[in-house]
Amino acid sequence: MSEQAHNKLTTASGRIYVENENTKTVGPRGPVLLEDYILHEKMAHFNRERIPERVVHAKGSGAFGTFTITNDITQYSKAKVFNKLGKKTKVLLRFSTVGGERGSADTERDPRGFAIKFYTEDGNWDLVGNNTPVFFVKDPKKFGDFIHTQKRDPYTNLKSPTMMWDFWSLNPESLHQVLILMSDRGTPVGYRHMHGFGSHTFSLINAKNEKFFVKFHFKTAQGIKNFTDSEAAAMKSKDMDFSQRDLLEAIESGDFPKWNMKIQVMTEAEARTVTFNPFDLTKVWPHSDFPLIDVGTLELNQNPDNYFAEIEQSAFAPAHVVDGIGYSPDKMLQGRLLSYPDAHRYRLGGNYEQIPVNRCPFAVNNYQRDGQMRVDGNGGRLPNYFPNSFDEIKIDESYREPSEQLESTIADWYDRNSKIGGNDHYSQPRALFREVMTKEEQDNTISNVIGAMSGISGPKRDLIVNRQLCHWFRMDEDFGRRVAAGLGVNVDAVMENMNALR
Prior knowledge:
502 residues; alpha+beta; Cytochrome C Oxidase, Chain J; Hemocyanin, N-terminal domain; ten-stranded antiparallel β-sheet
C-alpha cells in the first residue's frame, strides 16, 4: 500500500474517498445520481456478503492450535506428522451441529461435527468426524435422504419428527446412532466437554509399506459434560450461541482446551476374520479386542481473528490424506471422498484451496489453472501441462502407495439385509445401553426417546411408532416396554407385530 493511501479510507480498487455516509443527489432533497459509484460498490458488495451455507454442519465454531506427539506409532505409519516425539503441528479444529441452519441453537439435540485440519509438511491432512464413533447409515446412497429428514418438511417448512422416525424405523442400522443421539450425549455442554472421533475406518502405512486399518479417537481432557433435555432447552432460550461463546471465552482467558488422540489398530488379517464388518460406519470396534493406543495431545490456543475468513471459509474433506495415511473399503468414507470436495467447489469455488485458511503452508505444485478467484499468480508463464521440458517439477517415487489386494472381483449391490454386508443392528446398541450407560443415563435416554417420538403425527403415526418400537424391543425388551408405556401404546399389539415380522 502506498504511503498516500496508508490508513485512509479507500474503495476496493484503492481510490481514496471522503463521502462514506452521504449519497450524491440533485439538491439536498433531490434524486440520487447514478454516478455515485461508492454507493454502488457498497451495496453491491453487501448484497454478495453471504455465501451458500453448508448443507450440513452449517453452524459451527473453530479455533487454531497445536498437535503434539507423545507416543511413537511409527511402527504403524510413516506419516511425517507422527515421525518424532515432541513434534508439533499446527491445526484448525471446527466444531458444528449437523442438522441446523446457521442461525440455529447450539444446544439442539444433534450430533456434533469434529473436523481437524493438520497443516503438515507433506500437505494438509483433514480428519473429518463427529463426536460419535458411529453414524446413522452405512451406505452413501442413503446420506442425502437421511439429511432431508433432518431438515425441513417440503410442505410445512417445519422440522418434522414424523420424517425422522419414519426414516429411522425403516433403517434399523440407524439404531446405534439414534440411541446415542437420544441419550444425554446428544446435548453436550459446549464443544470442550465432548469426545471426537474420525468415525470412519482409515488405514495407516508404515515405512515397510505394511498396511493397518485404524480408528481415530480424541478424548477430551476437560471431562465429559452433558445437558439433560430440560437443561438444553433452557440454555436454548437463554443463549442460542452457548457453545460458540464458551469456546471463544475459554481460549481468550487462557483456558486452552485439550484432547488426547488415541488410535485403534487392526491388521489386514484381523479385518478378514473379525465377526463384524470393520468397515461398517454403524459399528464400533470393541476396545477389549482393539485397545486404545496413545498418540498425542491436541490443544486449541488461538481464536480466529475473523470468523468468516478463517472458519466460514474453512473447508475439510476426508479425501485429503497424506503419505502414511490412507483410505479403507468403508462405503460411507468412499462416498465422502467425492461429495466433500464437490460441496466446497459449489460453496467456495473451484479454487477454494487457495483461500489462506485452506492453503497448504508448504509447497504446492500442480498444473491446475484458471477458474474463478484464482489469486496465486496462476502459475505465471510456467507450462500448464505435464509432462513438459521446461519446469523442474518431478515425481518422487518414494511416495508411491503400495498396491491393494481387493476382497473380490465380483461387483454387485449388497443390500442392508445381506448376510455378506452384516445385518446385526441390535447387539452393539444393546451393549451400549446395558453395559455402558448408568441407571440415570438409561432413564434420561428413555425419557428423551418418549419425548421425541411423541412428535410423530399424521395418518401413518401408528405404523411408524410400532415399527420403531419393534427395533427398541429387539435391542432391549424393558427399553421397548417403557417407551411403549410412555407413548400409550398397547405392548401386546407391538409384540404381535414383532412376531409377524419374524
